[in-house]
Structure formats: structure tokens, C-alpha cells
Design goal:
The chain has 147 residues and is α+β, with helices and mostly antiparallel strands. The chain has a domain of 102 residues: Alpha-Beta Plaits (2-Layer Sandwich). It has seven helices and four strands, in the order βααβααβααβα.
Length: 147
């Protein structure tokens, strides 16, 4: 069983897409084990995106991610990271496969609706940044035997 961090970014929250996005992951069979709506402050944003600190888009990225509330969640399931990444689609919504979250809802690379961990190490780090261990629940879905 694998866990991944997924975040509906400020554009997705502001456009009222949070419920639709969570529903997609749940319908796929991923289990929601933690979730919260929050406003990311500058320090958390810089820590979260620290691998991009030297890139020219870093300042704009930090400005965007702190511009409004985000919906942070932890999803659990077999191959949760790769499944969530495929469901999100390419970073650039114009290159994302139709049916993915970014293709269906995103308009621009800078406002692409959603973020998700890209590896087990990233998932562990990002979950730790946004959630305390006692906020992570464990439950069995009613349909778990079929998934």
C-alpha cells in the first residue's frame, strides 16, 4: 500500500473544482486518508518547492501557490503515486491527454490546477510538510476487495 500527496492549487479551489477532483480519485479506487483546506504561507511554499529555487519561475510559483487556499490531501492505494500522476496529466494542460485533470480543467502551465508527488521520497517529504502523523487515518474502503 502506497501513499501520495496531492494538492488542488489555488486556481482549482477558486474555481470550485475540489469536489470533482476528489471524486475522480475516489472513483478510481484511491482511499482519502487525510485532507484539509489551508492557506500556504511563504515559508511553507518555499520549503515545498525548494528544488525549484534556482529556476527563473520560482518567484511566480511561490506567488501563485500562496495566492489563495489550497486543498491538501493524502491518497492511499496500490501504486497510488503513479496512478495519481497519470490521472493528473502532463504539467502543461495543452499537452495533457484528454480525460486527465489538467487537460479537462487546466488552461496554462502556471495555473494547472493540481500538484502531486512524483516519487515515494517526494510523497514522504510532502506529506510530512503538510500533515502531522496523527492526521493520517487508516480505513478500509467498502470496495477494497474488488480493487
Amino acid at each position: 500500500m502506497e501513499r501520495t500527496y496531492v494538492m488542488v492549487k489555488p486556481d482549482g479551489v477558486a474555481r470550485g473544482l475540489t469536489g470533482k477532483i476528489v471524486t475522480r480519485f475516489e472513483e478510481k479506487g484511491l482511499n482519502l486518508v487525510a485532507a484539509k483546506l489551508l492557506q500556504i504561507d511563504l515559508a511553507l511554499a518555499e520549503e515545498h518547492y525548494k528544488e525549484h529555487a534556482s529556476k527563473p519561475f520560482f518567484k511566480d510559483l511561490i506567488s501563485f501557490i500562496t495566492s489563495g487556499p489550497v486543498f491538501a490531501m493524502v491518497l492511499e492505494g496500490d501504486d497510488a503515486i503513479s496512478i495519481a500522476r497519470k490521472m493528473m496529466g502532463a504539467t502543461n494542460p495543452l499537452e495533457a491527454v484528454p480525460g486527465t485533470i489538467r487537460a479537462d480543467f487546466g488552461m496554462h502551465t502556471n495555473h494547472n490546477i493540481i500538484h502531486g508527488s512524483d516519487s515515494p521520497a517526494a510523497a514522504e517529504r510532502e506529506i510530512g510538510l503538510f500533515f502531522k502523523s496523527d492526521e493520517l487515518l487508516t480505513s478500509k474502503r467498502a470496495d477494497a476487495d474488488w480493487l
